[in-house]
Amino acid sequence: MDDRTRQANQRSIIQVIRTNRISSTEIADCLNKSGLLCEGLTPITRGHFKVGCISYIFAAAGSNYPVHQGLEDIGPDTVVLVDAFDCEQRALFGHLVAKFTLLYRQSQALIALGKLRDAPHLIREAYPIWCLGFSPIGCSNEVVDLAPFSGQIDEQRNRFEGCIAVCDDSGVVVIPREAEDNFVERLNWIEHLEDVWFDCIDRRKWTTFETVCLKRYESEASSNLIFRAEN
């Protein structure tokens, strides 16, 4: 798939997810129960739903100098993923970076694979940020030697840059490049399956065991169900 075709396909995927507010849980189901970005990644404030292509930046060796530098090239409507290499438990950034990224760069969301600081400000502003906790001790903003981390940085950037991230109260799920083909069809399938399952338990009064495990709806052709499950 060439870049232009892939971008068009991604726009279609994002539009379907955003329009139908398809949750990270449903996205993970489309990926055969996979796609979780990081265990323990949670939103600072509840109720946000964000989807977009990832812009990858990072902190390293206890310094967020590369974060500030990376933000120079961030475009609007992206989900900014801030990775961390050898930053121990230091906060990767705080209110200043969050405001600049989300307000002035017009990013969809911020994801930090580490801790943040300025929790009262971030919570009060209800920013769409996902992180691994808080610390009052921040990174320095000094130039550091990135050579020891270059291999890891390149690997992570190649893995995440430009991929679609779906962020909500359950966490963050990333759709890998190799799963993007026919993914709109997968989204339509999972949405339809959810409708069938809730029809079975709400209207037909079947048990969840009959519905989810036995898939009774697949064997009752005369039941006038709206769907026959095909994975």
Topology summary:
Blueprint: H1 3-20, H2 24-30, E1 42-43, E2 50-60, H3 65-70, E3 79-85, H4 95-104, E4 109-112, H5 119-125, E5 129-131, H6 150-160, E6 164-168, E7 171-175, H7 183-202, H8 208-213, H9 216-219
Parallel strand pairs: 2-3, 3-4, 4-5
Antiparallel strand pairs: 1-5, 2-6, 6-7
Topology-level CATH name of the largest domain: Glucose Oxidase, domain 1
Q: How far do the termini sit from each other?
A: 24 Å
Biggest sheet: strands, sense, closure? 7 strands, mixed
Helix-strand pattern: HHEEHEHEHEHEEHHH
The CATH architecture of the largest domain: 3-Layer(bba) Sandwich
Number of strands: 7
Shape call: elongated
Notes on the structure:
With 231 residues, this protein is α/β, with parallel strands linked by helices. The protein has 9 helices and 7 strands. Strands 1-5-4-3-2-6-7 form a 7-stranded mixed β-sheet. Helix 2 (24-30) packs across helix 7. The protein starts with a helix and ends in a 12-residue tail after the last helix.
